[in-house]
Amino acid sequence: MTARVLVVDDQTVVREGLTLLLGLLPGIEVVGSAGDGEAALRLVESERPDVVLMDLRMPRMDGVEATRRVRAAYPDTQVVVLTTYSDDESVFAALQAGARGFLTKSAEAEEIARAVETVMRGGAQLDPSVQRRLLETMAPPAATGTTGGSEAGHRGGRGPGDVPGGLTRREAEVLRIMARGRSNAEIAADLFISEATVKTHINNLFAKIGVRDRAQAVAYAYRQGLADL
User: What whole-number distance in Å separates Cα of residue 47 and Cα of residue 38?
Assistant: First the structure.
């Protein structure tokens, strides 16, 4: 499966370099490039790429606003942020806007290609340092008491028999695997069930825990101790 990719960056040398680099990778077809968010939206409308590699700091329309508009108007197009900035404000703004990946420009070509493939399959991929800070932000405060309880309880996690939110054990298992960035097809392979069954479990758990998308579900999983870093 070939991924149709749009490159968006306001720096010409970076934009052209990424276009050239990605064009050499198997499974990726660069369908265009843009220097700001407004131009990116026009190209998304005309080219309908599978994935947009989006810079954040750009003139006329920044990457966060462009990501928000792309995801609202073209939900089948995924966004991977590729930027120099990895401060908390930039990370959270991009993810809240709908980005499914967040990489810094120090990422290698193979890592970018892997992120493109992952988001196309319904997963998410974050730079390790970004993921660590995100999880630290979502983690509940450490318990101060040490009276009784298992080791998992002292870590703020849950034992294997504890299932929050009215989830079945299978739904909790699907959620745990989803939190690792696995796609529906990969979850199905891991659990030896059909992809249709995975989708049913995901729809059910979304309704039970009151979330709208995978990003919110993953955040819930970490808050509830269902997933580990």
Answer: 14
Predicted confidence (pLDDT) per residue in 38-59, tens digit: 999 999 999 999 999 999 989 8
In terms of domains, do 27 and 124 share one?
Answer: yes
Are 13 and 119 found together in one domain? yes
Domain membership of residue 145 (yes or no) is no
Q: Tell me the pLDDT tens digit for each residue of 114-132.
A: 899 989 888 888 877 776 6
CA distance 132 to 102: 12
| Whole-number Å distance between alpha carbons of 123 and 111 | 14
CA dist 66 and 95 (Å) reads: 12
Quick one: which of 144, 150, 154, 54 has its CA closest to 104?
Answer: 54
Q: Which domain holds residue 212?
A: 153-223
The model scores a pTM over 0.70: no
